[in-house]
């Protein structure tokens, strides 16, 4: 039997192959903890380092030259069911099949990310490292109901350079992010009885692939008039033309992260002491990845007090989420929960996740 520590180590390098296909969110290389609390919205109102990934046109917003420097920003995600399973394993001090069987069909998720970079008005340079982890115990319909533990891991290391500019008295903002990506991926599917040596199997050369590639995102924002209206619209093209990742082993297949076209709208209203914002994002409107409308719909809102404390809420793929942040400039904390749809349509198999992020910068 493996210990709790080893089981969590297995999860930290795992991600289920059976859940990856045609999942729009798997094509996303970065997701902001701040934005997740408000339904993962931000296409029409992204700013700061989040604009690099959500809409680079947002870098042209505001006045002056300098926006922010992010030294470190470690963020963590954990499925609610993973937390319950870990507590159970800790109390029983083993990971016997009987312990795992009570979680059949429940996705286990662990995620980590860190961004470091400097952001100016109109330009930004950054580096991102993240890992997204899932594991799923299920009964095989093709093999007499045998219980299988499926897992795989995707790790991204990415460098970004972004530029943006405003036109017509800031009525139109345009930006682009150029990104160089190194990605590693491993997957495994084993009988639950054989799961005790899963880490060794995952580390074998047969189950690991490494890729590299260069791609670009384009973004536009409209603000009326000259940036003084509370209304704004956004349009992004992520992974223009498809981001092709070359396998470092010439005889193995390359992989492509598909292009998506996304729309957003936002309203920002209030006073200097408090502000309310409302968001609507529609992703992949050309159905390049997922045809299900509700899985691509994101709705959010937030209220901010003196730019120090804020509460967020929204709907991510039809599921409610909440968040809060505390920002004293040199340190910022984001915390909350959201639900990710792991099935083929909204409402079929939600995975509720907790997130926490602490950032340090100036």
Key terms:
362 residues, 17-stranded antiparallel beta sheet, 17 strands, disordered N terminus
Percentage beta strand: over 45%
The main sheet comes to: 17 strands, antiparallel
Radius of gyration: 21 Å
Query: How far apart, in Å, are the first and last alpha carbons?
Result: 47 Å
Residue windows where pLDDT falls under 50 for at least 5 positions? 1-22
Coarse shape: globular
Helices and strands: which structural class? mainly beta
User: What is the quaternary state of this protein?
Assistant: single chain
> How many strands?
17
Mean pLDDT, nearest integer?
85
Estimated helix fraction: 10-25%
What is the H/E string?
Answer: HHHEEHHEEEEHEEEEEEEEEEE
Total helix count? 6
What does this molecule look like?
The protein has six helices and 17 strands. It is mainly beta. The protein has a 17-stranded antiparallel beta sheet that branches. A hairpin with a 7-residue loop joins β4 (123-139) and β5 (147-167). The longest helix is centred in the N-terminal third of the chain and has 13 residues, at 80-92. The radius of gyration is 21 Å and the shape is globular.
């Amino acid at each position: 039997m493996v210990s709790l520590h080893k089981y969590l180590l297995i999860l930290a390098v795992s991600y289920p192959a059976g859940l990856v296909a045609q999942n729009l969110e798997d094509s996303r290389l970065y997701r902001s903890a701040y934005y997740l609390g408000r339904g993962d919205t931000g296409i029409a109102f992204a700013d700061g380092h989040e604009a690099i990934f959500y809409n680079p046109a947002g870098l042209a917003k505001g006045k002056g030259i300098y926006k922010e420097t992010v030294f470190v920003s470690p963020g963590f995600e954990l499925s609610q069911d993973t937390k319950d399973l870990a507590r159970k394993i800790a109390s029983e001090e083993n990971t016997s099949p009987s312990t795992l069987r009570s979680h059949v069909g429940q996705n286990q998720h662990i995620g980590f990310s860190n961004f470091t970079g400097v952001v100016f008005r109109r330009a930004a340079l950054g580096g991102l490292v993240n890992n997204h982890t899932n594991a799923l115990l299920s009964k095989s319909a093709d093999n007499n109901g045998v219980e299988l533990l499926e897992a795989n891991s995707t790790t991204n290391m990415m460098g970004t350079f972004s530029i943006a500019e405003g036109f017509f008295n800031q009525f139109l903002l345009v930006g682009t992010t150029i990104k160089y990506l190194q990605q590693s991926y491993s997957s495994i599917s084993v009988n639950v009885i054989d799961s005790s040596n899963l880490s060794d199997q995952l580390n074998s050369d047969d189950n690991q692939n490494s890729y590299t590639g260069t791609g670009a995102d384009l973004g536009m924002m409209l603000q009326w008039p000259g940036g003084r209206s509370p209304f704004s619209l956004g349009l992004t093209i992520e992974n223009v033309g498809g981001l092709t990742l070359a396998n470092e082993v010439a005889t193995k297949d390359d992989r492509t992260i598909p292009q998506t076209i996304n729309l957003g709208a936002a309203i920002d209203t209030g006073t200097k002491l408090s502000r309310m914002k409302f968001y609507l994002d529609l992703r992949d409107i050309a159905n390049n990845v997922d045809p299900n409308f509700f899985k691509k719909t994101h709705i959010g809102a937030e209220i901010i007090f003196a730019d120090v404390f804020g509460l967020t809420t929204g709907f991510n793929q039809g599921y409610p989420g909440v968040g809060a942040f505390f920002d004293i400039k040199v340190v910022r904390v984001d915390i909350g929960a959201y639900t990710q749809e792991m099935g083929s349509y909204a409402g079929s198999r939600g995975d509720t996740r907790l997130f926490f992020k602490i950032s340090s910068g100036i």
